[in-house]
Recover the amino acids of this structure.
């Protein structure tokens, strides 16, 4: 643990000094913390200063983090880090540590899939609610120094004319310096930028929101069941990302250290993921859906 963490009374109660703690910037930790409604509400109200959320409604009960929305099994599925709604608005909030080079396109995809998920068959377009796709970036995506970049649809010929489609895409930059920040947002950015060294410093931040989030991070890090689940999640995340690379036709040097064909690589990655999930006790129906193959094909792979 870090010195700051060890000096914090709650951290000392864990009784472990040889453990690698997981900071909030980690997507698994972020998703777990956001399962708590007061943390979700606090983050929205921090991002949108002056906005008060009456009540949050998660798409699944219990609250769903890392929610999978699959519009069509034949198409690309997306995993949303945090997906919830407050009745009038639907939010997707993503924690992003590195620039993958495709974030604007991912934001477009996420927003479109959220719309498709909202609009059940037979419903009118008026049923679509306002939507926000928000990336909390640990880097400056556009390299202009801003703390926040907000994009909405407007008319090119008349910049005062909004389209009014209710869609907004936002990129927060924790390293930014241009633009006003509330005290809570400033403290939140500092907490994220501090990484592991921030754990246990919530009380010192001067922000009730950050203190609350830090308490959750401390509690979750002290939960051995969660940590064991995390150790299973990390290699599984690698497998899922590997499959996506193959589906996009990319040869993955990480898989074998050599370039392999798309079909062969996808089959091997799917095979590994199916067997890994089975070893973790995941039901065969869920495995088949995650791998985008039939139950019969899943059984065949497990018996091979």
């Amino acid at each position: 643990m870090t010195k700051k963490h060890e000096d914090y009374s709650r951290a000392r109660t864990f009784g472990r000094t040889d453990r690698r703690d997981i900071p909030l910037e980690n997507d698994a930790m972020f998703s777990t913390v956001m399962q708590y409604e007061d943390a979700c509400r606090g983050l929205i109200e921090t991002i949108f200063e002056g906005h008060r959320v009456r009540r949050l409604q998660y798409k699944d009960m219990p609250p769903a983090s890392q929610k999978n929305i699959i519009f069509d099994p034949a198409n690309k599925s997306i995993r949303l880090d945090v997906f919830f709604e407050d009745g009038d608005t639907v939010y997707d909030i993503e924690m992003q540590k590195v620039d993958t080079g495709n974030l604007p396109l991912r934001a477009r995809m996420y927003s479109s899939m959220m719309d498709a998920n909202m609009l059940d068959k037979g419903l009118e377009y008026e049923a679509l609610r306002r939507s926000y796709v928000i990336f909390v970036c640990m880097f400056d995506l556009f390299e202009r120094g801003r703390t926040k970049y907000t994009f909405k649809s407007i008319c090119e010929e008349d910049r005062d004319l909004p389209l009014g489609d209710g869609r907004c895409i936002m990129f927060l930059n924790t390293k930014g310096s241009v633009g006003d920040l509330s005290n809570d947002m400033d403290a939140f950015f500092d907490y994220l930028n501090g990484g592991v060294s921030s754990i246990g410093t919530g009380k010192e931040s001067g922000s009730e929101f950050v203190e609350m989030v830090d308490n959750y991070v401390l509690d979750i890090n002290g939960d051995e069941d969660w940590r064991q689940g995390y150790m299973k999640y990390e290699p599984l995340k690698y497998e899922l990302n590997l499959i996506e690379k193959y589906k996009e036709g990319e040869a993955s040097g990480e898989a074998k250290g050599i370039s392999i064909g798309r079909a062969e690589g996808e089959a091997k990655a799917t095979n590994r993921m199916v067997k890994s999930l089975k070893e973790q006790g995941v039901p065969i129906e869920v495995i088949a859906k995650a791998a985008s193959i039939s139950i019969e094909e899943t059984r065949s792979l497990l018996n091979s």
About this structure: The first helix runs from residue 3 to 7.
